[in-house]
Design brief:
By secondary structure, the protein is mainly beta. The chain has 5 domains: 128 residues, Immunoglobulins (Immunoglobulin-like, Sandwich), CATH 2.60.40.10; 150 residues, Galactose-binding domain-like (Jelly Rolls), CATH 2.60.120; 207 residues, Immunoglobulin-like (Sandwich); 83 residues, Immunoglobulins (Immunoglobulin-like, Sandwich), CATH 2.60.40; 74 residues, Immunoglobulin-like (Sandwich). Helix content is 7%, strand content 49%. The protein contains 5 helices and 46 strands. Strands 1, 3, 4, 6, 9 and 11 form a 6-stranded antiparallel sheet that branches. It has a 5-stranded antiparallel sheet with strand order 2-5-10-7-8, with no helix packed on it. β34 and β35 form a beta hairpin.
């Protein structure tokens, strides 16, 4: 999509001319695996701080972790390198954190020191509720103006009262007089086609209250190029305050990949002091369709863990109430004590991936559920959330060898996602430990091909296949007739699971269709496909996500009734799902419905048909018209006018009321438009 020259130049200038105007003194995201260089621990708790591979505070993995053990009672400080604050009267300090409470109330704060011994508290807050928080404060202590100042985030209290405290994205900077920062563009990463409201968050990181600001975005919808009219927002933002805003004009998007930009033009009717933080762009994927979600449960446990008993019981009860509506993998850990004898290194890899520091702990679709079972409400919420990917697979067993075939399909373009295959045993009894349990469920035995998943990129509407054979004699499997295989597709960075499914058991794969085509003529929708292999019993056919045929038995499909509802210059799609015996289904294959009429399309700006709806006479205006043809809703030619002109009038007063299609043939191309006769 083209961008206006003015918009592009403005963005380039704002980045290059003002990039160095605000002094960022600390910007620590904890991307390494060890504590960052120059940072130290002061006070108690010198062994309690570390780097976790999780992202619970809300930033990207990794993050800073304060752990309760070894227990201490007092103050523990995580201290920055020394800063030169000569001529600095105040600082802005911001960070994200996640509080995992065990009981009671605990405090964290910000303090400064110019001698490394005496600490001056600048901010402190008590917390008693577990959750994700953010802090943005302007601080000023007696250490301001000195040339050797250290800043710390400190914990105050008894560490026994917490489980963990996570911190990320610590930023320390000086304040400009007038500075509005664009923090985020708050739109979904994936959405269905249709209207999008562009919402964004800004923060006042200057010293002056911001009364108003002007911002612009770009209409990236099909058929429109360039910026929309700039919009003025009433803000009333105090220093360090954040607020969310939404453009009054929405945009309409067809399936595809878009970059949605937002640019702050002016603040308080003038340019703010740092324009390097005035622009963001977010990638958005508009899906060709969606499907039902099968929630993915990952559960960390151990047969030597006392608290795991009640969580295992709750999970067994929950899943028994929702048969066939979940996928499940349980990773048995090698702690506490001697741990579970069915621990595997792959389970350990998943533990470090999620930053698991205690059992029991459960994850639903990649999101932590804490040290508890998945709740019924959370499971239902996941079930009710549309999925933009689909997963199907099957396995069979030959002796000790398992053979797995799995298809991973996406309704949007997905790049560098990871597909996971976990072989579980449904019930085990050989790993009895010390917690009193005698059997364990969904115990992971092997991950193919490894616990880091299989990297893949998937084109929208298509699928990628994985096939593995593995000798299970090297695992802890007890009974080769008691296996299940969990399949899921995951964003490895955000940890979001797009969808999952248990593979069909001890059977052949449900293969999808291949070589599918779909075309729209003036009279009908025509689609065809081929059988890859296997013996489908029929096909389910969806148009724009709506089921139009159930158990259809042909390899070609014609629909004349649907033409009038989809011949509207918008993108439409058809999906075919192969059906097999015993209720098995393949992943779908989705195709954009290509128009056989508008092969060479007249530019929208060069064609006008009005009025529409019409009662009597409709006018057609375009350059170098050769002929105009009118078809009724079932594709029958009603009238054809051959004329060489730029203007044609069609008298429709004697036409029956209903929908007609006006086809305009010119020297520059052909276009067909729907016209409603009143």
């Amino acid at each position: 999509m083209k961008k206006t020259l003015l918009f592009t130049l403005a963005l380039l200038l704002s980045v290059t001319m003002f990039a160095q105007s605000r002094a960022t003194l600390i910007n620590e995201a904890f991307d390494g695996e060890t504590l960052p260089s120059g940072w130290t621990i002061n006070g108690l708790g010198s062994d309690n701080w570390s780097i976790a591979s999780s992202n619970k505070a809300g930033g990207a993995a990794n993050e800073l972790l304060l752990y309760w053990n070894p227990q201490f009672n007092g103050v523990s400080r995580f201290v920055s390198p020394a800063l030169d604050l000569t001529n600095v009267e105040s600082l802005a300090v911001s960070f994200k954190h996640y509080f995992d409470n065990y009981g009671g109330t605990s405090a964290i704060g910000i303090a400064t020191s110019s001698d490394g011994i005496n600490w001056n508290s600048a901010w402190e807050q008590n917390y008693s509720t577990s959750g994700q928080y953010s802090v943005s404060e302007i601080i000023s202590t007696t250490d301001m103006g000195k040339n050797n100042v250290k800043i710390c985030i400190y914990f105050s209290g008894n560490s026994y009262n917490i489980n963990n405290w996570y911190f990320d994205d610590i930023e320390v900077f000086t304040l400009e007089n007038l500075d509005l920062r664009l923090v985020s563009i708050d739109i979904p990463t994936i959405m269905d086609k249709g209207e999008l409201d562009i919402t964004f968050t800004v923060q006042n990181i200057g010293k002056t209250t911001i009364e108003s600001f002007e911002a612009e975005t770009e209409n990236v919808g099909d058929g429109f190029c360039g910026t929309m009219s700039p919009e003025t927002f009433t803000a009333n933002l105090a220093p360090m305050e954040k607020k969310q805003f939404t453009f009054s004009e929405s945009i309409t998007l067809n399936p595809g990949t878009y970059s949605i930009p937002v640019n702050i033009i002016s603040v308080n009717n003038t340019s703010d002091d740092d324009q390097s933080n005035n622009f963001l762009s977010k990638k958005l994927y508009v899906a060709m369709g969606n499907t039902n979600r099968i929630p993915m449960i990952e559960h960390f446990s151990s047969s030597t863990c006392g608290p795991c008993v009640s969580v295992n019981y709750a999970m067994n009860q929950l899943t028994a109430n929702y048969p066939g509506q979940f996928s499940y993998v349980k990773y048995q850990m090698n702690w506490p004590g001697n741990g579970d004898p069915y621990y595997t290194e792959e389970g350990g890899t998943r533990r470090f991936y999620y930053g698991v520091d205690g059992v029991p702990m459960a994850f639903l679709d990649g999101a932590s559920q804490g040290y508890a079972a998945v709740t019924e409400n959370n499971l239902i919420q996941s079930l009710e959330t549309p999925a933009y990917a689909d997963v199907r697979g099957a396995f069979n067993v030959e002796g000790n060898t398992i053979n797995v075939t799995a298809d991973f399909m996406s309704y949007v373009q997905m790049e560098n996602v990871r597909a996971f295959i976990a072989i579980n045993e449904k019930v085990t009894t050989g790993n009895v430990g010390s917690n009193g349990e005698t059997e364990f469920h969904h115990v992971m035995m092997k991950m193919l091909d490894g616990a880091n998943g299989n990297e893949m990129s998937i084109n929208a509407g298509e699928y990628q296949r994985l096939e593995f054979s593995f000798d299970m004699s090297s695992t802890n499997v007890e009974d080769m007739n008691d296996l299940e295989v969990a399949l899921w597709l995951q964003d490895y960075n955000s940890k979001e699971v797009y969808n999952s499914h248990f593979a069909y058991e001890y059977t052949e794969h449900a293969y999808p269709v291949k070589n599918m085509t779909a075309n729209l003529t003036e009279t009908s929708l025509e689609a065809s496909w081929e059988v890859e292999t296997g013996n489908p019993t029929g096909y389910n056919i969806y148009i724009d996500g709506q089921l139009v045929e159930t158990n259809y038995t042909g390899l070609s499909y014609v629909n004349e009734e649907i033409v009038e509802s989809i011949y509207d210059d918008k993108d439409h799609s058809i999906e075919v799902v192969a059906l097999y015996e015993n209720g098995k289904t393949s992943v779908g294959v989705v195709k954009k419905i290509a128009s056989g009429v508008n092969v060479t399309e007249i530019k929208e700006s060069n064609l006008n048909i009005y009025p529409n709806p019409v009662k009597d006479v409709v006018s057609v205006n375009s350059e170098n018209i050769n002929s105009v043809s009118v078809y009724n809703s079932v594709g029958v030619l009603v009238e054809k006018i051959e004329v060489r002109s730029n203007n044609v009038e069609i008298n429709m007063s004697d036409y029956n009321t209903g929908i007609y299609f006006v086809q305009v043939n010119t020297e520059n191309g052909t276009a067909t438009r729907k016209v409603v006769k009143l």
